[in-house]
Amino acid sequence: MLNSLRVSWCLFPLLLVAAVANAREERSFRPVTVSHAEVRLDVHGKPIDCHDGCLEYFAGRYYLYGTRYGETDGFTPANRYVVYSSPDLERWELHGDLLADTPEGVYYRPYVKHNPTTGKYVLWYNWYPVLWEGQYGVATSDTPQGPFKIHNDNVRMAQPRPGDHGLFADDDGTAYLIYTSIELGHSISIEKLTPDWLSSTEENSGVFASGCEAASMFKRGDRYYALFGPNCCFCPEGSGARVFVANNPLGPYQEIGDINRDETGRVTIPAQQTHIARLPGSKGDQYLWMGDLWGSRADGVKGHDLQHWSEPLVFSPDGSIAKLKRSGSVEVEVVTNRTD
C-alpha cells in the first residue's frame, strides 16, 4: 500500500501538467474586428480614456491599463492611471483608478505583469514630482484590476533620471525593465529586476541607442526583441518603431529594421508606440503592436485620442518582422472559453 501511494504521489505532478495542457488545448477562439478609426466606448457608452499603457491577458480576461488625460494637455498632475477589462476585446468595463494614494506629480505609462512566484500583480510606472525629474514607482495588488498599493515610489536604477519604460517578464519568471535615461540623451538600456520584481538588481545591458522614447520588449521563441522610436512626445505625426534583436535579454542587441516606416523612410501609422501585447491565439501567441494616435480626437479632448492596434505581427524565419500596415480595423482572435 505504501509503495502504491508513493507511486501515485510521484505521478501527481505529471497528472497536473497534463491537466493544464488539456485545459489549454480545450481553449476555443473566434475572430473579432478591432476598429481604430473611431473612439472606443465602454459598456456605458462613454469614451475609453486609457493611453500609453498596455494590454494584458490574465485568467481568462483582457485588461487594458493606461493613463487618463481627460481635457488636459497631458502635462498636469491631473493624470490618473485607470484599468478597463473585457471578456472579448469588444465590451469594456471601467474599474476606476488603478493606483491608490499617489503623491502629487505627473504620471505616465503604467505597465502590469503577474509574478508567478509571489502571486502578486506588479505595476511599474514613471512619474515626475517636477517635470522632467523622472523616477520609477512600483506597486502591487492581489487582483489585476487593483487598486495597487505603492511599494516604492523612487526605485534606484543603474541609469540616471529615467523616462519612458516597458516591463517584460521572461518565461523563467525573471523580469526586466527596458527604459530611457533622460539625463543620458534619452538613451535606451535594459535592466534585470529582483525575483519579486519590486526593485532593480542594477544589472544593466548598457546603452544601445539614444534619442528614443516609448520602449517595449518581448520574447518570441529564443529571440528577444526591443522596439522603440525617436523622441515624439504627444506628436501627431507619429514615430517609427526600430527593431532590435538579441539571444539574451541583456543583449548584445542588433538593429534589424523599422516596422513603422515605409521604404522611403516615411512613418506608416501616425502613432507613438506604447506596447507589444502578447495574447493567446489558436496557432500560438499573437503579438499586437499598439500605438497612441496623438491629436486624432475630433472633439478636441485629449483623452479621446484614438489608439491603433495592429493585426498580429508577421515574423520571418530569420526573426525579422513584416512592416506594419495602415488600416481602419484589424482582425484578432479572442479566447471564447475560460479553461485557463
From TrEMBL:
GO biological process per UniProt: carbohydrate metabolic process
InterPro entries: Glyco_hydro_43, Glyco_hydro_beta-prop_sf
Signal peptide, first to last residue: 1-23
Keywords recorded for this protein, A-Z: Glycosidase, Hydrolase, Signal
Domain of life: Bacteria
GO MF assignments: hydrolase activity, hydrolyzing O-glycosyl compounds
Record-linked Pfam families: Glyco_hydro_43 (PF04616)
Similarity remark: Belongs to the glycosyl hydrolase 43 family.
Name recorded for this polypeptide: Glycosyl hydrolases family 43
Native organism: Botrimarina hoheduenensis
Native organism taxonomy: Bacteria, Pseudomonadati, Planctomycetota, Planctomycetia, Pirellulales
